[in-house]
Amino acid sequence: MAQNLESFLKKLGDENWRNISNSIVYIRSPEELKLLKLANFPVDPRNDGFIAMCFVDHNEGLSFYVIAAAHIRDANIFVSKENKSSRLIIKAEGLKDCVYLNQDNIDVDLSRYYSYAQGIMAEFEEPFEEAVAIRDIEELDDFRNPRKPDEIEVMLIGKDFGQERVFVRAERFGENCLYGTIVSDVNRKTGFKKGDEIDFMLVEREGGFNTVHVC
Fold it and tell me: How many CA atoms are closer than 13 Å to the CA of 148, on its beta-carbon side?
């Protein structure tokens, strides 16, 4: 006898982005169905969430490209019709308190949604080839913004101000370093401001790693 899908639901905000990015998930969020209706997605009265392709938007972070409204009952998932003429992307930040079901537990023909993956790659990955490659550096994971994994916490070190931590959106490889744009507020004494490009390095320090820029 198939197991009730309710037992596989997890809180989305507690999940590691690596476990869900580039996959299809079901998210229970009755509130978001208002957005689906406004975007002319067919919504069945029984629907209490939606299925979506999860991906990383370089600028906006972990995001969900909505495919269709859906709901689960016992061991089954029921998916309403798609609306390929409409586009709806929801950021992970607004869904962190929702529960979700991962791709392994969605018993539908996922190949029918391949076109969504192709479109996402063309728009959100191919133009940011180096940033996507930087995501493969797992040693940076301890410093990543969990919902915006391209944003990495970097320690600025300088004799005039000591140490200052900022978030940098990693964008490209340099010679023995990475380059990115500062996306958080920063102390003026550092000589930097939000929006500036800086280089930084992943260095081994005290038995672990750190991300630093030496001014």
Answer: 17
152-189: b or e for each residue (b if 16 or more CB lie within 10 Å)?
A: bbbbbebeeeeebebbbbbbbeeeeebbbebbeebeee
User: Which of 10-19, 138-147, 182-191 comes out lowest in average pLDDT?
Assistant: 182-191
The contacts of residue 129 (CB under 8 Å, 6+ apart) are none
Determine phi and psi for 61, rounding to 5 degrees: 90, -160
Output the pTM of the full model: 0.92
CB < 8 Å & 24+ apart, contacts of 186-191: 186/156, 187/161, 189/158, 189/160, 189/161, 189/164, 190/156, 190/158, 190/161, 190/164, 190/215, 191/158, 191/215
